[in-house]
Design brief:
The protein is an alpha/beta fold and 203 residues long. The protein contains seven helices and seven strands, in the order E-H-E-H-E-H-H-E-H-E-H-E-E-H. Bound molecules: glycinamide ribonucleotide (GAR).
């Protein structure tokens, strides 16, 4: 039987679309549900167009025992994936699904993580600091923004000519290639990854 993936996303959802299509072509898993806190998020439309159930929820439902948690208890996902999800993830769900919630961050954590560091803000900071590399981090989610144990990182070189837009493109390419494979590997070998340590704090 295929493993079940639930995705949380707040925005455009290009990663969500990529994940849905990747797993639709294989036998390992399927994306069974896409949840968004934004009613007009393009991700909901992308999921619908690919015949995946999608739901919008209000913020209060995320933190209540009878809201999003109840939906997840019914679905019993093997993995919960945050793909551009911009709200703090609630402890009530983390407790119910230990080591089963992962996030993708568009930088090499612990650099450029924390509250307010998402999407273009990350790439703008990377360019402002004249970094010579950036990348992606896939990590477990814990109660602090971007601090759970790292599962996977991949870097890409930057040059003086890079702008926040070109950095975003480079990072997206890494996300599209590696994120589905990292998820697949986690689902096939859940015990090979430790979730017991956190990366050092930045700053
Ligand atoms: C992705 O680049 C993801 O890494 C980032 O948001 C983008 C969502 O793009 N996530 C964060 O910044 C979380 N802190 P998408 O909606 O097109 O998949």
């Amino acid at each position: 039987m295929k493993k079940r993936i639930v995705i949380f996303a707040s925005g455009s959802g290009t990663n969500t679309q990529n994940l849905i299509q990747y797993f639709q072509q294989g036998e390992v898993a399927e994306v069974v549900l896409v949840l968004s806190n934004k009613k007009d998020a393009k991700v909901l439309e992308r999921a619908k167009n690919l015949n995946v159930k999608s739901l919008h929820f209000v913020k209060d439902a995320l933190f209540s025992e009878n809201g999003v948690l109840k939906i997840l208890q019914e679905v019993q996902p093997n993995l919960i994936v945050l793909a551009g999800f911009l709200l703090k993830f609630p402890e009530v769900i983390l407790k119910e699904f230990p080591h089963k919630v992962i996030n993708i961050h568009p930088a090499l954590l612990p650099k450029y993580g924390g509250k307010g560091m998402y999407g273009r803000h990350v790439h703008e900071a990377v360019v402002a600091n004249m970094e010579r590399e950036t990348g992606i981090t896939v990590h477990y989610v814990n109660e602090h923004y971007d601090e759970g144990a790292v599962i996977f990182q991949k870097s890409v070189s930057l040059s003086e000519e890079d702008t926040p837009q070109t950095v975003a493109q480079k990072v997206q390419q890494l996300e599209y290639v590696h994120f589905p494979k990292v998820i697949e590997e986690l689902l096939l070998n859940p015990k090979t990854h430790s979730a017991t340590h956190s990366p050092p704090k930045h700053g």
